[in-house]
Design goal:
Layout (H helix, E strand, L loop, with lengths): L6 E19 L2 E7 L3 E9 L2 E13 L8 H10 L7 E13 L4 E12 L2 E13 L5 E10 L9 H7 L4 E12 L3
Antiparallel strand pairs: 1-2, 1-3, 1-9, 3-4, 4-5, 5-6, 6-7, 7-8, 8-9
Organism: Daejeonella lutea
Pfam families: YceI
Protein name: Polyisoprenoid-binding protein YceI
Length: 180
């Protein structure tokens, strides 16, 4: 359970992840998924309620993103420049928390998103639920543009596949307190 002291700072880590990356190519949807992510958050609780998100970091191994098509995976890894950039990283810089204090909150976070060696400012909206077992569940959706991160296939492949520039990322993360 969460400590109910007047104000406590607690560090949580990602204990479960469900991440889906989708887009379109030639008017067909494609999808890659992973259940692997590392990350941490430093949270401040006041009177047993989430009061502030002090830090948020997330890292996803590129090689753990999988589709139903190994050839597509290989192309995606090449476009994401998996060698030498084997991780997608997000580091929250500005975080604003709102909520009713009933265990449900919304986090607005602006931070640095690094994909394929390129870092861009990204905004994430995360719906947070404090669970009865002391874990937190964060859910959200964001869209990024391939062009912002120079994610490319060979020119001939891009022309044939007609890839959309917009990629949608849906995520659900469970955070557990370190030490539990």
């Amino acid at each position: 359970m969460l400590q109910s002291l007047a104000a406590t700072s607690q560090t949580f880590h990602v204990s479960k992840a469900d991440i889906s990356v989708t887009g379109t190519a030639r008017e067909k949807s494609w999808s890659m998924k992973t259940n692997t992510a590392q990350g941490s958050a430093n949270l401040l609780f006041k009177d047993g309620k989430l009061a502030q998100v002090r830090s948020l970091n997330l890292s996803i191994p590129v090689g753990e993103l999988k589709s139903d098509n190994p050839r597509m995976d290989a192309r995606a890894y090449k476009g994401l420049k998996m060698y030498p950039y084997d991780r997608i990283r997000f580091a929250g810089k500005t975080m604003k928390l709102s909520g009713s204090g009933t265990g449900s909150y919304r986090l607005f976070t602006e931070g640095n998103l690094q994909i394929a060696g390129i870092t861009q400012v990204a905004i994430l909206l995360v719906d947070i639920q404090v669970n009865n077992d002391g874990t937190l569940t964060g859910r959200g959706t964001t869209e990024i543009k391939r062009s912002d991160f120079d994610i490319r296939l060979l020119a001939a492949e891009e022309a044939v596949m007609s890839l959309s520039d917009v990629i949608r990322v849906d995520f659900q993360l469970t955070l557990s307190r370190i030490g539990n």
